Amino acid sequence: MTDIEMNTALCLSCRQLIDASGAGTEGLRCPVCGSTVHPRRKNSLQKTWALTITALLLYIPANMLPVMSIETFADSSANTILGGVIELFENKMYFIAAVVFVASFIVPLFKLGSIFYLLTALRVKDRLTNSAKTRLFHLIEVIGKWSMLDIYVITIMAGLVNMGFLIQIKGGAGATFFAATVITTMLASKSFDTRLIWDKKGEQ
């Protein structure tokens, strides 16, 4: 049985389970923290779909535009995410190249694909159990922080290596789009109500 069927409601602020029997849960106040409690997040699916599609559209220029430009007295160069990975690999920095590739390319794709899957699974029949879908969502939240690795690296390098006219490291337009992709994906996962997974009947 779901919480709605048991006449209870969960406060998302303090995680208190509230007895909602004899009263509608719309506008119900949590007796512990005073927050407004709703049976499900309002417009959760619409918001998550909109944010996920936006993140996917932002992810395209994030990988096509340079994320970092290096300007020296004699030359200048700019690299995309994959271009930077290739350059690190050519310079035999295999571990760093692997970390950047996984954190900045594989992880965002995994997050977007997983959210799309969870949204689609609410409408069509799939093989995963509700417990597995819930664990998948929590995995998305855990690995989400590593998606910003490229931005951290650019920021640190710009602060440490910048030496005036000798060498300058600047973030490119790709870094802006990449940061926007990560933030939008985080908002998408935040807006998704996992309780909707358990509202789907016939799967335990």
From TrEMBL:
Transmembrane segments: 49-74, 94-122, 143-167, 173-192
Compartment(s): Cell inner membrane
Pfam families (alphabetical): PqiA (PF04403)
Superkingdom as given in the UniProt entry: Bacteria
Main location class: membrane
InterPro entries with a match to the protein in the record: PqiA-like (IPR007498), PqiA-PqiB_transport (IPR051800)
GO cellular component, one term: plasma membrane
UniProt keyword list: Cell inner membrane, Cell membrane, Membrane, Transmembrane, Transmembrane helix
PANTHER family in the cross-refs: INTERMEMBRANE TRANSPORT PROTEIN PQIA, INTERMEMBRANE TRANSPORT PROTEIN PQIB-RELATED
Protein name as annotated: Paraquat-inducible membrane protein A
